[in-house]
Design goal:
heterodimer, A: 300 residues, alpha/beta, two-stranded antiparallel ribbon, 12 helices, B: alpha+beta, 2 helices, 4 strands, globular
Chain lengths: 300, 97
């Protein structure tokens, strides 16, 4: 079966593009985000849901976004709008459907059933379209593990912090308020072998605050972040790039492993220290990230 | 597609096109198009508008379009949205890619 999405790929940045703004839709590909997310939900006024649907449908059918991952955030299914969004975007070739306000595994199952029905009706192989779940409530955070395992179509979980902090009866501050949700979503995503994407940083003029948040989510283990302003993309990618020192060490680890294998030895060491399996896995991941990053820069 | 009322879709922002459709009983499609790229792309925009209306089965209408440099896919989207609004229809039929 031919899938439209790649399960495991570089997802450092997912750029929000309002679904009813043709100028921004046309320009979306030039900013270098790994994934472009056309939004039919919160950035579109209720009275313009129909026009945005026509616009995103026609853009997906016509415009060339190169190798970028194309995601569409639909309205939630209970609103009645979500199904109409799916009817418009699946025949048009969307790669990944982003489900908003995912409260339970059942939300994912319900959405998947509709996607499968629409794929079948249009002669698209059932299973071709990917999904991701945005978690934006206390319920969703507590059910994150079940959500992450609810469908084999899922490529990742994302945190939507604005609704979440409101649900918690707090506000966004230094990140303390999101520590539990971030940790929970990250662990849930990893337990299902899928990506974890952090929430947007909405104060676009606060570069320092943005970079501090990126550093925090990098340390926690997130793949990347949703972004609302193209200016944040370059800063984000730079901050997630492995340092020269770490890269050198990673390549040295891999060389030591290769040498040990050539000697027929199962034990490799570097500077007198034995190399454990987790060290090798981390080194491989770092090199993959660096090489994928280079490939993306060359394409751009 | 039977048009019931006057309806519009689109905005006056750069890269967009504002399309207004008035139903009429007969006389085919009349088109009043203004564009800041009329000289280069006027004919192309007109062709896309007429083609889209044809595909939707709209035979008679007064169409007013103010273009701000919209691409073909935007023109098609705005004409379709205006026509569905004018027909008071919500059951869009999405063709395969």
């Amino acid at each position: 079966m031919e899938r439209r999405y790649v399960k495991d790929r570089l997802r450092r940045s997912m750029m929000f593009v309002p679904g009813n703004n043709p100028g921004m839709i046309v320009d979306a590909r030039i900013y270098g985000a790994d994934s472009i997310m056309f939004d039919l939900e919160d950035s579109v006024a209720y009275t313009e849901k129909d026009t945005a649907r026509f616009l995103v449908h026609n853009a997906l059918k016509t415009l060339d976004f190169g190798k970028k991952e194309i995601v569409v955030r639909i309205n939630d299914l209970s609103s009645g709008l979500g199904i109409r969004d799916l009817e418009a975007i699946i025949p048009a070739g969307v790669h990944v459907v982003r489900l908003p306000k995912t409260d339970s595994a059942q939300d994912v199952v319900d959405c998947e059933r509709e996607i499968a029905r629409i794929e079948a009706a249009h002669g698209i192989p059932v299973g071709a379209t990917g999904m991701m779940a945005a978690i934006e409530t206390a319920n969703g955070v507590l059910d994150a593990r079940a959500i992450a395992h609810a469908s084999s179509r899922l490529i990742g979980l994302a945190l939507g912090a604005e609704d979440y902090v409101t649900d918690l009866k707090t506000t966004r501050s230094d990140g303390t308020e999101l520590l539990f949700a971030r940790s929970m979503i990250l662990n849930a995503a990893r337990s299902a072998g899928i990506a974890a994407l952090d929430t947007v940083y909405s104060d676009v003029n606060n570069e320092e605050g943005f970079l501090a948040e990126v550093e925090l989510i990098r340390k926690l283990g997130f793949d990347g972040k949703s972004v609302i302003n193209p200016r944040q993309i370059g800063m984000l990618h730079k901050a997630l790039r492995p340092s020269e020192r770490d890269l050198k060490k990673a390549y040295a680890v891999m060389e030591a492993i290769a040498e040990a294998n050539a000697r027929g030895s199962g034990v490799a060491s570097l500077n007198g220290k034995m190399i454990d399996k987790p060290v090798v896995i981390r080194a491989q991941r770092l090199i993959e990230l660096f090489e994928a990053d280079n490939t993306v820069e060359e394409e751009e | 597609m039977e048009l019931i009322k006057t309806a519009a879709a689109g905005t006056m922002e750069s890269g967009d096109i504002m399309v207004t459709i008035d139903p009429r009983e007969s006389g085919g499609i009349t088109l009043d198009l203004t564009s800041n790229v009329m000289q280069q792309f006027g004919r192309q925009i007109e062709a896309v508008i007429r083609e889209t209306l044809g595909e939707l089965g709209v035979e008679h209408a007064d169409v007013q379009a103010v273009d701000r440099g919209a691409l073909d896919c935007t023109v098609r989207a705005r004409v379709s949205a205006a026509a569905f609004r004018a027909a008071q229809r919500e059951n869009e039929q999405w063709g395969e890619t």
